[in-house]
Structures are given as C-alpha cells and as structure tokens.
Write a structure and sequence with these properties.
Length: about 150
C-alpha cells in the first residue's frame, strides 16, 4: 500500500478556502488538471455517497465517491471508483485547519492506494505533485493576499 501526504499554507481564511473546495463538483473551478466534472444522478454535490464523474485535461476519466464531509472540521474524504490510472483501493482525505497567526489556512491532503508492484514511486510522485501540490498551488494563487 502506498501512502502519501502533502501539506501547504494558503494565505486566506479557512472559511473562504472551504467555501470553494467543499463542493465535491467544484474542482474545475480551482484545480488546473480538471477539465470538467458532473455529479451522477443529479444528487447534491455535498451529499455523502454522491459520485463525481470528471475528466482530466488529458481526457482521462475518473469516478470518485464522497465518503465523508464535515463543515465543522473543514474535512472531506473520498474514494476512487474508476480511473484510467494504475491504482486501486484509493482513499483520500483533504482537510483544512485555521492558522490563527495571520488568518491563514493549513491544508493537508493524503491518500492511500495500491498500484502495480514496482510502480509505487511513480504513482506516489504523480499524485503528490500533479494532483495534491498542483491543487494547493492553484489555491494559493487564487487566494493570494486574502488573509484579512
């Protein structure tokens, strides 16, 4: 099993960052790798159990299910159901924590998954850099200077 963890500090209040990322269907609005997304079956995008079907910029199709969402803890988790990537048993969590010194946000994104033996380092690098860090970098850019 591969385990990855990426963290960052976003110069914006946690409630502002959360208001953007809590929508399970909003990734195209903040993540540069996501081309388009929809929630299957017309369910609300914050309903636990809903499934988002989305496409990466390169055309890869992925389906993920929302497992947990907590507005109190600024935290959600999800599982990949189908992906055009070499991974299985993928479960991830994204959590925000207020940084009171400067009214900023500590963001952490972690995942566990299986992949083909010998491909662990490659998939860990792909997910940690092209998904998690790229998402945090885009959020930092989008919220630049919003610490008040």
């Amino acid at each position: 099993m591969v385990k990855i963890f990426v963290s960052s500090v976003i110069d914006a209040p946690t409630d502002k960052v959360w208001s953007l990322i809590r929508d399970f269907n909003a990734m195209p609005a903040w993540h540069p790798a996501i081309a388009r997304s929809m929630i299957e079956g017309g369910r609300p995008s914050d309903a636990v159990g809903c499934i988002r079907s989305f496409y990466l910029q390169d055309g890869t199709h992925i389906r993920e299910q929302l497992l947990m969402l907590s507005d109190f803890d600024f935290h959600f988790s999800y599982a990949i159901l189908e992906a055009g990537l070499d991974l299985t048993n993928y479960v991830a969590e994204l959590k925000l924590t207020p940084v009171t010194d400067g009214n900023r946000t500590f963001a952490e994104w972690k995942a566990e998954f299986d992949t083909t033996p010998g491909n662990e380092t490659g998939m860990a690098g792909l997910i940690s850099q092209n998904v998690f860090q790229a998402g945090f970098d885009a959020l930092k850019e989008q919220f630049a200077g919003e610490t008040s």
